Amino acid sequence: MPRDERMFGDIVDPSVKVGNQQWYTVPLSILVHTVVIGAIVIIPLLAADILPTPPSMLAFVAAPPPPPPPPPPPPPPAAAKPPEIPQSNPNAAPTEAPSEIKPETKIDTNFDRGGVEGGVPGGVVGGVVGGIPDPPPPPPPPPPPPAPVRVGGNIKQPTKTKDVRPVYPPIAQSARVQGVVIIEATIGPTGTVQDAKVLRSIPLLDQSALDAVKQWVFTPTTLNGVPVPVIMTVTVNFTLQ
Question: Which DSSP category does 133 fall into?
Answer without folding.
Answer: P
